[in-house]
Specification:
Layout (H helix, E strand, L loop, with lengths): L11 H20 L3 H5 L12 E2 L16 E2 L24 H14 L3 H6 L2 E3 L6 H11 L3 E4 L8 H9 L10 E4 L17 H4 L4 H17 L4 E6 L19 H15 L4 E7 L15 E2 L3 H7 L2 H8 L4 E4 L3 E2 L11 H10 L5 E4 L3 H5 L8 H11 L4 E2 L6 H13 L5 H22 L4
Parallel strand pairs: 1-2, 3-4, 3-12, 4-5, 5-6, 6-7, 7-9, 8-10, 9-11
Length: 438
Amino acid sequence: MTRVVTPRRRSAAGRLGVLSGVLLAATMAVSGCTGSALFGGGTAGGPAGAATSSAGGGGGSGVAPSGSATSAAGGASGAAPEGSGRVRGEFPVVSVGERIRLYAEARLSTMTLEQKLASLVMVHVGGADPAPLQAYLTANQPAGLLLLGDNVPGSSVQATALTDALQQSEGLGTLVAIDEEGGIVARLAEDGYPAADTLKSEPVASTNDAFAQRAALLEATGMTVNFGIVADVTADPGSFIFERALGTEAASAADRVAAAVEAERGHVFSTLKHFPGHGATAGDSHTSIPSTPLPLEQWRSEVAPPFAAGIDAGAELVMFGHLAYTAVDARPASLSPEWHRVLREELGFEGVAVTDDLLMLEASGVPAYADRTANAIAAVAAGNDVLLYNSTVDLPPLVASLAAAVRAGTIPASRVDDAALHVLTLRRELWVQQHPAG
């Protein structure tokens, strides 16, 4: 049965997370709990009588001094020593997710505007030699790097050697992204696993199996983000996206998209693309701005379900296509605040929103999108967290232009903070996965 997407408010989890952070910060100030216990799961320092929280599974547990109260994952309150005449209150349990969020907020508070803006850009640096890629990371501190075929022309051993050499920042993982859909879009030579062209007509379990094998290959070669789950829907064999779509109608595509996300979970961050859906539009977004007059209500029932299913399955990123749904907004969705609202508020997505390659807008031939800087400013203001470039970009001038737009009020400073926090949270989550001991 086809799932119809209905508008919904964002869950209270995000709002409660912020409140938990405030409460925890207050608790730390009173109890003397140290930042190492909060962010890394190490021992909580402080005087006798301080409380130590153990979130369980996300780092080492703190050891409380004599006479202290320890709060375990079950939420038990610390009891005062018998006969002391004192009653101790309950201390909040800090989950792994909350610790990741709090770490990201702390890092954000130390960053300049320019550093925040640089952290929103992901570029491609060509070649299989890791030195230029590492030099770009060190000099610019971007969100991460996009690897294409020229970066990984050889075996998985060569690819692993490249990614092993890329280091960015203590405490934050390095986002190394790749387009690995399989089939006609595969960068790694060893990816011979089934892809959408055949998976769409096979049982859903086949999609899970294929993407599990693909995810294992990506993890083994050091890739951390896969721009590889096509959530578009089309039954038209003449469509640009037909061979890459996982289904010919909403329900079957949704099942396979969810299976692909579940298969990648814990191995590589999953990306759904090309929101709000390439299949409903005619044309190729690499060389034009494909458009459709499809009404929003029809989009909710016929196009949105695979994206909703992927989000519900835990996809960490959603890629915005340069696609115009003119009944909603004449602008491409990648530059549309309204489409970002739909993603966040109606589909409940709380992860990282990334543009498709922004250079595609320039290649569309539409005069309104010929200016690279204007496109970048519009993309951040619309709600994107990561600006993707399929080539090397001279970052300092772009960052300077974005910073000027913030200071002029064209981009709200709160929008930059929100975007940078999304990216920092994802990178901290990656670091925690890569350093399970804390």
